[in-house]
Amino acid sequence: MLDYLEYIVITLFMVSVIGYILAVVKEKILLKNNIILIDKKSVTQSHIEETDMKEFILDGFRIKSGDELKVFLKDNKKFEGIVIGAKKKEKSILMVTYGDEVKKFSVENIAKFKIVSKYGKFFKEF
User: How far apart are CA 114 and CA 69, in angstroms?
Assistant: First the structure.
């Protein structure tokens, strides 16, 4: 009985490791082809076309589409999510929150922000 349980645990571990490796390879291929995958149902093609900048500098930090940010507004509200892009004319950032809401933040309304993770940062280490 214990032998069967051991085989099942080893098999499940191997399947999870192989699944992780395949997910990493898929993201590496997408990154190599300059494709940013934002897997949120609320983000539509019109949201992506609405932005005119996919890479921009905010307070000296280079931010690209796909980066995860924490945004602190001047009215003490905090939002976390993934950057879709920026609008140069309106001086605003378009971001999808973890609650699947697309939010637009004016640069003047942002008190501070924190970059949680950069898109594709894992692959730059290798």
Answer: 6
What would the pLDDT profile of 9-66 be if each residue is shown by its tens digit? Answer: 999 999 999 999 998 888 788 777 767 767 677 777 777 778 888 888 888 888 888 8
Count the Cβ atoms, other than its own, within 10 Å of residue 79: 18
The torsion angles phi and psi of 36, rounded to 5 degrees, stand at: -105, 125
Predicted TM-score of the model (pTM):
0.70
User: CA 52 from chain center: how many Å?
Assistant: 18
- Paired tokens of 21: 């490796």
Pick from 47, 28, 18, 57: nearest CA to 119: 28
**What is the distance between the alpha carbons of residues 119 and 122, in angstroms, rounded to a whole number?**
8
